[in-house]
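User: Fold this, then the next.

Assistant: Folding the first:
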Amino acid sequence: MKTFEDLIKEVQEPGLCHHCGGCVTFCTSINYGALELGPEGMPRFGNRDKCIECGLCYSICPEINELDQETKKMVAWEPPMGKVIELTAARALDPVVRKKATDGGAVTAVLLHLFDTGRIDGAIVTRRTDPFSREPHLATTRDEIIASAGFFMDTSHGMKHFGHDYSTYSPSVQEFRPVLEKGLSRIALVGTPCQIEAVRKIEVLGIVPSDSIKFCLGLFCSGNFSFTDKEKDQMEAVGGFQWDAVTRINIKDNFMVYLSNGKVLSIPLDKVDFMKRFACHFCMDYAAEYADISFGGIGAKDGWTTVITRTPLGRAVMADARGKTLETASDGKALDRSAADTLNVVRQASRRKTEHAQARRKEL
């Protein structure tokens, strides 16, 4: 049986660790301090002697294929990028949520509906800590869910006020520990593809708190970005702008930079690869293929979110939220193309990410 020692050799040392936090969060010896997250988010031994070598951490790692077939069967995964029941565009009906959101607030609207109808008593989301930084948070009130809306890359105060290094990644899986501590039994998770996959593997194994995870909402992911001073300077040179003039950033088909003068810069994603976290170059999941519902900005008009319904549960949630907290559309009002053509755009983005990851893995 392979253990955390093997994860260090096979995943961490080659630089493949996504920092999702699954191994630390679900460690059977976590209450005894066997594993912990280091200052930079890297899992490590807290006390090596307390590790019972059960192998759980190894099995659920998104970089390990030990439970791949069981996980795909559980979510009825289909090639080339997971089960697709329907693609549509959506946005929150509440203008307050839309104003705070990045792409229409569809994720927040779905969470609010689930919370208002008593289907969840909490949601694992992220909340802003700095212009380019966020942290995982267990939202247990309506206000906390609304406060989590947005991509958390608003730089309206000017980058000159911030001298630290930032990352757009947040290890949301960590928040399952407070779920256990608070005794919550109905939770929704909003996460990146690697986080969703780790949680699905926990469900396959039937390990606590898998029975508390009622809904998995995934986010399209081109990669997560780190903003050191050097990378900020490089980004200014690539885009021909200054951070003090930036009001908002978003990732859709391209890296979008919104300036205070109203101008919007669209920078090809391959031009900002130098900011991408190293492990993200090896991830093959763009569209959160294991989620109940996947959300992203690609293919949708400004103020709308592209939504892929993947499971019968996800389809029921979307149908029930429609007209209550959520507005949907599948035409030119909300999408740049037809729904079928938009799905092809997402598939192309998914294929590019997969091919890029496969090429990079050959270099290891």
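Now the next one, as you asked:
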Amino acid sequence: MKKENQKLSLLLEDISLLQDYVEDLFNFLPLPICFVSPRGVILEANLALKEISGYQTEEIIGKPIEEIFKKEEIEDVLNEVLKKGSVREREMIFLTKEKKEIPVSLSVKLRKSQEEVIGYFLGFFDLTQIKKVEGELKKKIEELETLREKETILRIREIAKSKDIERKVRELEDTRKALMNILEDVEEARKRAEEEKNKTLAIITNFTDGLLVFDKENKLSLINPQAENFLKVKGKEIIGKTILELKNFSNLEPLISLIGEKIKGVFRKELPTKEGLTLEVSTVPMMSGGEKLGTLVILHDVTREKMVERLKTEFVSLSAHQLRTPLSAIKWSLRMILDGDLGEITKEQREFIEKVYKSNERM
């Protein structure tokens, strides 16, 4: 059991570290990114998207994607993604909180899990500066064309195509490609994290012992079906609650009293339940680099073992009682023979009967 607990703790630690890495990378990227559900609802958004849109986290999460892109345009793109799997560099109009229109280059990738569509991955690049440069160049060209001087027009066009502008365009293109590669890496890392998380949850769900996971603030973050069955509670009603809040549930009060409000160290302490079960309770701290990440509480059902132990004790007591009466009769009969009440016996007979009498005394 100890090795399984250690393995489970390592798996939980690895998943926590991988999730932190993905979230940090997600928020670090300067490119606006968001995850959208199959129904077109925004589930997650990074800092870059919040800054460009003007929305706060609680405002943008849960919004329909049509509120930040024009409805007809985004519907066409999502339908194309469902057919092809992805769309790259599609020019769109992005709408801020103040309904300001920003030109962007949008890329979308379909997210699947076991051939089932679980949403969309959106990233876009702000084209404002590029459009501004294009507009300025176009304006200059139009002004120069009005001069009707062919040589002047050609000279200005050469300036517009100067090395400095070309260099800046190349840098922007290289940056865009690098960011797209990062987005693909982020998606792969996220997919691996989800797979590992699903594996760990499958292990926890099918574990024969009851498991409760508390975070470092002693809030319940996970409870498996076996623990729900042992304690007769529903996970959705108690997840996220503190130790003090859990104590208000009558079925959990004996467990909380046993482990304490600060979740002390417990090893194989017995806990009887109202349903007649006997559970062995153990607590295991989950550590990472010397820092406590939380506590794992294990509930092991020992009802059968306790029943067998009780039946064995009852059997021994009953057997001893049933043997006492015939052994007493044998004892007094042997005593009468040794005392001569039934007639004289030989020396050899006496020695043999005395051995039997002593054996009877020991019983």
